[in-house]
TrEMBL record:
Coiled coil: none annotated. It comes from Streptomyces agglomeratus. PANTHER family: MECHANOSENSITIVE CHANNEL MSCK (PTHR30347:SF1), POTASSIUM CHANNEL RELATED (PTHR30347). This is Transposase. InterPro entries: Homeodomain-like_sf (IPR009057), MscS-like_channel (IPR052702), RNaseH-like_sf (IPR012337), RNaseH_sf (IPR036397), Tc1-like_DDE_dom (IPR038717), Transpos_IS630-like (IPR047655). It comes from the Bacteria. Residues 192-319 form the Tc1-like transposase DDE domain. Gene3D superfamilies: Ribonuclease H-like superfamily/Ribonuclease H. One of its GO terms (molecular function) is nucleic acid binding.
Length: 361
């Protein structure tokens, strides 16, 4: 039963919908969600005592928000301004920080530091940093990009991605590339092992014992890798590596090889070899688009898990280390999963080109 001494709370359809939305959404500030529940309970005709008991709050809390809603409706449920230190940074100063960051550079410099900009604007470096954070500005960061100028960009992307997402029947698809000039590096002092609270430590300088080139063909369906170590990566070396792929692949399968635009991949000796092996088909990635070749992802694993922290006292030691890690990989091989369609990739490229072709500010 309602309390006839209390003014009734009558909601419009819009107000009820808004309050119910606030009450449901826990992402909304907890206080606002509770206030919405109080008003909705009052709208059912409940008195303040019943509302307080049902929601587990003080009776005076229910009375306060009933009164504020009746006076100011939905606006009355918002928090009132709280007392605190008066604001010392004006809107003009905030605007000046943002505009200078985006449109100017300091004399003799390439980008602002918080101290340089604070000195010009007349505020503290901490205030400049807070403004940068608020507007998502990071002048200390920079990134690089390269848009492929390949006239057959679209066709090549559709071709390569099609091989990943829908490989042909009765065929093996290999992502192929070379990792040239892998260095056999020996540290000038023994590596100090990791201890509790202390990371592994190694000397800054090293002794180089020569280099070796690695050819790799990643089977995109199984994740297994066919490799060949070579002193160089000439066209004849690439042809010899194709021979190795031919020997290790079921003769009943067609072979699709994804590779980049290195001149060695298009040399006459390779073309002649392809004519003698009609089951092989080469597919070229777009210019400056090594990111689309899955074997590059495998090279990243090789670098991270074998080479970056490896110590090799000779070229033979390096070769043995590479062969050992490759064997472990193949014993537990799993394919990399390609998820983006050609249309998604092209749409993103178009959006990026549109973004960089317009004025930034």
């Amino acid at each position: 039963m309602g309390d006839t001494r209390l003014p009734p709370v009558v909601l419009s359809d819009t107000e009820r919908s808004t309050l119910e939305d606030w009450a449901r959404r826990r992402s909304t500030a907890q206080g606002l969600a509770q206030r919405a529940q109080i008003v909705l309970a009052c709208a059912r005709g409940w008195n303040n005592t019943r509302v307080a008991a049902r929601l587990g709050i003080e009776r005076k809390t229910a009375a306060r928000w009933r009164t504020r809603f009746l006076l100011d409706r939905l606006d009355g449920l918002a928090d009132e301004p709280r007392p605190g230190v008066p604001r010392t940074i004006t809107d003009a100063q905030v605007e000046e920080v943002v505009v200078r960051t985006l449109e100017e550079v300091p004399a003799g410099g390439t980008h602002w530091s918080k101290r340089e900009l604070a000195k010009v604007v007349g505020i503290s470096p901490a205030s400049v940093l807070r403004i940068w954070h608020a507007f998502g500005l990071q002048p200390w960061r920079t990134e690089t990009f390269k848009i492929s100028p390949d006239p057959f960009l679209i066709d090549k992307i559709r071709d390569v991605v099609g091989l990943y997402l829908a490989p042909p029947a009765n065929a093996a698809v290999f992502a192929v590339d070379e990792k040239p000039q892998i260095q056999a590096l020996e540290r000038t002092a023994p590596v100090l092992p990791m201890l509790p609270g202390v990371p592994e430590r190694r000397s800054f300088d090293y002794v180089r014992h020569g280099t070796v080139d690695l050819f790799a063909a990643l089977n995109t369906a199984t994740g297994k890798v066919i490799t060949k170590l070579s002193a160089q990566h000439r066209a004849v070396d690439f042809r010899d590596f194709l021979d190795e792929i031919d020997r290790q692949t079921d003769p009943g399968l067609a072979v699709h090889v994804i590779c980049d635009n290195l001149s060695a991949h298009k040399a006459p000796v390779v073309h002649k070899w392809l004519l003698a092996h009609p089951r092989f088909h080469l597919h070229f990635t777009p210019t400056y688009s090594s990111w689309i070749n899955q074997v590059e992802r495998w090279f990243a694993e090789l670098e991270r898990r074998c080479l970056a922290r490896g110590v090799f006292c000779s070229l033979d030691d390096l070769k043995a280390g590479l062969e050992s890690w490759i064997k472990v990989w193949n014993d537990e091989a799993r394919p990399f999963k390609w998820t983006k369609t050609a249309d998604q990739i092209l749409d993103r490229i178009c959006r990026y080109c549109d973004r960089i072709s317009k004025p930034v500010h």
